[in-house]
Hints:
Blueprint: H1 2-13, H2 18-29, H3 32-35, H4 38-53, H5 57-65, H6 78-85, H7 92-101, H8 104-113, H9 121-129, H10 134-143, H11 151-159, H12 164-180, H13 192-199, H14 206-219, H15 221-234, H16 240-253, H17 256-259
Amino acid sequence: MILASCFSFFTASYQKPAASMILNILNLKKMDFILDNQETERKFQQILVLIKSRKSGEVADLMSKSGITYKTNWGVSIIDLREIAKQFDPDHLLALKLWNKQWRETMILATLIDEPNLVTEEQIDYWTKTFENTEIAEQASANLWVKTKFAYIKAMEWCRGKKHIIRFTGIHLIGRLALTDKSAIDEMFEPFFDELPTLAKDSKLNTVFYRTVLIMGMRSEYLHNQTIELAQNLQMSDAENAVKQGEELYEELTSDYFRTTIKN
């Protein structure tokens, strides 16, 4: 728990003056002045053509009807977007230009093409605050945020966020870290267990919460025991939704099948 205390101190002290943050966000909104590069523009225009060549109005309509809305959505599949991304080398400036276009496809491609080591805290904050739905939150979390040096700090910060989409992104990012960050010690995940009981009360977060806890439980025997303890505590909550989550998680986490999935 010493590590957890250090983590909490770090997150509490990891703040910037409000004026500085505002200026940084304003700078991000006016990024066009650094994006006027002929080679970047050539790649950008090429990508727009590739997107339109794979458009599907039917898919876009289905997404809209299911509540996944964007300012512009060409209905290109994630598989096709990944194929497009493979045609280009990682490029931070191109990613920024793609994000500024604000099409569904260009934003997802931005998360696939960007260079994690060049991503700034201000960029992470600005992009995340503008998420319109859970699809783009999941894509950014899985494709880019999890690979940056800010991942653990932001996951903790966003779990305490006021907006639903921010909390969703925080929980999703915890799951991605548990799944992909093989080098992290298990104790890095301890601080998140202090945040999860509150998040379990929100029924809108049920699916991402459930999946994330299971992913952590599969990571190691140590975290498996931690998730079982979490499930037991949730069953004693004064919130009906948290109790239900606890019951379902406990049943799954203690099943014979689940035990075979735990990493050694």
